[in-house]
Amino acid sequence: MTSDYKENDYAWIKELMHYPQTLEQQLSFFKDTSKIPVPKDPIEQVIFQDKAKRAIRKIAQNKGHILMVGRPGTGKSMLANMFNQVIDKSLGDYLRPKQSIVAYPGKDKNNIRIAYENSEKIDDRIAEITNRIVSVEESMDDFSLSDQINAARKVKKYLLWATGIGVIAGFFFAPAFIATGLTGIGAIFMYMQESNYRVQEKIQNEAFTGKKNAVKHLYDMVPEVLYDPRKDNGLMARISEPDSRNMKGGFRHDPYQSGNLHTPAHKRAYLGAHAKSPIIYIDELKTLIKVGYMSDLLEIMQNKKFILEGGRNTGSGSADRSENHLKADNIIVACCNHDTLEFLQKEGDGAFLSRIEDKGEIIHLESAVPETSKNIEQVVQYVKQEILNLGEEFKDAWEGVIEKEGYEGVRKRSEHIFGKRLPDDYKLKEREFSRDAVLEIIKELRCRASDKKLSSILRPINGIIKTAEFEAILDNAQLVLPEHVRRALDKHLSLEGEISKEMVKHKKDLKKYIGAMTDSIGYVVGLAVNYSKSSGQMFGQPLPIHCQINAGGSDTVVAPGRIGDIAKGAAQNVRASIKKVLQKIGAPYVGYEMHVEYIQAHSGVEGDSASVAMDIAIISDYIKQPVNQKIGVTGSLTGDIILAVGGVTEKIISIMDPVLGMEGACIPWQNKHDIEPLLINTEYEYIQNEEVPGIRIYRVQNKKDPFDIYFCKTKYNAYQILMGLDKQEVETRMTMRSKEDLEFIQRMKGTLPN
Description:
alpha/beta
């Protein structure tokens, strides 16, 4: 029988086992990260994105625009910051604005004029104008109520005289006392009136409202400095939600619009990023599209100027505008994901993209990079940078305690935080990574990618490195060791990871129950994967599948439940594959109904990576051959060939826990390199089942608890591993079953010949 494998194929599998030694040789330039240098060039501190870094240098030279496209965590924001630093050092003195932007009153109350002035001269001019207005204000007479006070005093004096005369007259003529009372009351009233005038005079003089109201129209003519480059000298403005207010500016609302208290338009004006910042960093273009600012941005990028206008349709400030233009020669640095890029290509026939390409470049940030020696060295550099960053964080948080109480004070205070006693020589100080710990980081980057690549989505790895540091600190270890990284990985599960973990626990019990209740015919353990949108990480999980095939009727496939279009297409493909085999071996034609069930996959199934598992389950039911329930399988079936699928490393990891009871997995031949990271810091050996090569990984030290991984080229290789049958045996039993089904149908129809 012709073999699917050649001699070179077996040699390639054996070469896979050299991967850990090869990786260690590439890392032989260091024992730990203590001597690893960090580049002084800020752009080189961003790892992996070599193409993007070259483009940024070129664009910085030409002062062009940049659009960075990539998944979250690939370094877009970091590259934008580095671009700002490079521009600042190279062209900052040229790009940084040197003139103040000043607003003057316009032709009417709703218009203003904009001027670019020398900062020191405009300060002197405003000070001179203000001093002249103050002189006019001070030369004005003080507010006085002396006439009213004198009149009240005179009347009070007369009333007091009349009261005295009335008292004397009362001794001789009793009714005179009535007049005395009236004049006394009048004198008291006039005294109160005089006091009231004095208080009013004092209040007015202290507040100067009289003078200020008299010269308010002069103060309203004083120009307003909207931007002073001496106070705001940053090159880049970070805009997370670009709209007309924070990009162009506008006019503030004036609550005092009557009683001579209104504020003139030029004193209510404010500027946005276009007028003040040479570089504008738009963190996420999707928000710009949502708020509808794209058309304004396109116009400003084209004309490099704009009119300052009120931002509301009604109310104060809606009719305000500038009579002349503001300059807006900005470098646009923008970021987006691939879905936003697709929208931008359609929106306005890609007008924004053409503006970017006209004076810049669209940069695609890699989600994964090849595992080259250079990129491995960059991983080591990246770990070192995160160690230094953590050291700075410790210093910022605990510097005061260290200075006053020393590390002993830090230890005692940390015991309250962690709720346990810490070692006497405990120090809250960053630890260097050992070489084996760096290997674990590389292993994780490999697991999160495929095809011999390292994941470039580094933001989630930052947290893993810091958590590993804390684990080493709590253990009071001199270095961060592999076990610290593994602990950190276990703690840094995303929401999808936690869900997958719970699912694996559930599937463990489900798998045991199915194995105890069935004969394993038509049942197979497929392998699925969940994808985390936040971290980019994939989380594997076992996917039990049950299939049945029954003779009668036309060829149909029934796959109930929430399965996607690709999964349905995979089921149809399996049906066609089986039908083709029956035709090839000359089996009589019989219509079959095929039922595919993803057991308790309540959240739905999508993708074609379970198509091999479906085929095995259907064939198992068809020829009544049990399937080994301790070996999982994944792969995309095309005819007889098994093609590569994603997430193979994570799928294998999900079933390697000894508690689950799995003993191995069948994966596509094209995914053979995805098992390389699983060989790091473990024991393993080459194995072979008939013609199918594989690698046995020991889950426990001293070569205990083996887990076998087989590399299958065709579905017949998977049949050999999972059912113990070769191609000829399977086809022979399929022919027998087909004949039996034909006889059964003929018997049912009464057409069976004697």
